[in-house]
Structures are given as structure tokens and as C-alpha cells.
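Technical note accompanying the year-one report. For the benefit of new consortium partners, we illustrate the data format agreed upon in the data management plan: each record pairs a sequence with a C-alpha cell string. No post-processing was applied to the example shown here.
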Amino acid sequence: MAQDEPTRENPCGSIGTAVIFENDHVRVWDMRVGPRGRKAWHHHTLPYVIVPITGGKVEIENIEGKVYYGEEAGGEAIWRDAGEKHELRNLTDAPYQNVLVEIKQK
């Protein structure tokens, strides 16, 4: 059976491109979006930290339809609480990459 396509109503996409490390405390994702590409609808069930590698301008639309924009610099760290359901779009002509660290709470 094929996996459903992630949508606003079914934000079932993966958090990142690939898990690069995981233990009892954290799950670390490599996340890449091509030029003018998008990261399909997904749900953050854990709090997380984003560390942009390339930086860039992004557009994020949440499940309620609110759109907000960000400009991230490579090497900074950005905290996000759990619960967000959104889609991310790369607004630049260059690839976008970050490392996303999910914090597993006990």
C-alpha cells in the first residue's frame, strides 16, 4: 500500500531528509530542500532545535493557514516548541540545508 501524500489535512511527511543520529535523548535529522522547493506537510511532535547549514529565506505555512517568513543565517540555533504542523518552502535559487535536533522528553 502506498503512503499517502502529505497534505494540510494529513501532515504525514517526514521531519527531515534523513536521520543521521539517534539515541534515547535526541533524534538528529539532515534536512534539505532544493532551490525554490518545499518540505511537504509534517508534524513536529517533539521540541527541536534548528541549526541552518546554508541559511536562506524560507516561507512557513502552518495548519491554520498562517504564513510567516524567516531569514536564517548559517550556524545560528533556533528553538521551536513541539506541536507545529507546517510546510516549508525555500524562497531562494540555492539549496537550503539545516540540521534539526529533536529533544526526546522523559
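Partners are asked to follow this layout when depositing records. The mean pLDDT is 91.
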